[in-house]
Amino acid sequence: MDKLIPSTKTCFQLMDAYHMLANIKAHSVMVARVAHLIARGLRDAGFDISVELTTAASLLHDIGKTASLNSGVDHAELGREICRKNGFSRIGDIVGEHVRLNGFTVNGNYSEKEIVFYADKRVNHDAVVSLEERLKYLIETYAQNQETRVNAIRTNFEICRQVEKKLFSKLDFPPASLSQRVGSERIGSDIEETSEAT
Questions:
Q1: Tens digit of pLDDT for each residue in 116-131?
Q2: Architecture of domain 8-197 in CATH?
Q3: Where are the chain's structural domains?
């Protein structure tokens, strides 16, 4: 049975239960702040987007990362399994696509999956960066000078650029202002307080 949407407190309890490293937790909190801002903007623009679902999925998008570091298992798929095992299948579906977005269409409905996928690509460690900066980091860190990996990462970022264009065509602020907006706005005392306490 799906437990619907976990609270922020439950998300942090799951992070601890699955031994999420502090740096991954800090990254996840920043991704959640970016995603929350975008989701709220789209909801306010009249789109059927759940800010709560987007925020929870963002907090848990790397729930499988710590366990995958030594095993080499796909952390997005492991994260999907962890979420489903804990009764959060809707979250799991989003977590499972935060690295590679399946079935994206420019003219399709706006979705929480697109927002989490995009927000993750805009955060390097715990700082909001441009897509170009994040792309450079991922190639340097994960491509291992293998042309096939470089091409796969670049192809994924081409999709991300299309997602960015789609999302921001309906928002009243540009992608370049994300860092300033996220830095000056508290998106929820429960997220801020929990992240500061960990």
A1: 999 999 999 999 999 9
A2: Orthogonal Bundle (1.10)
A3: 8-197
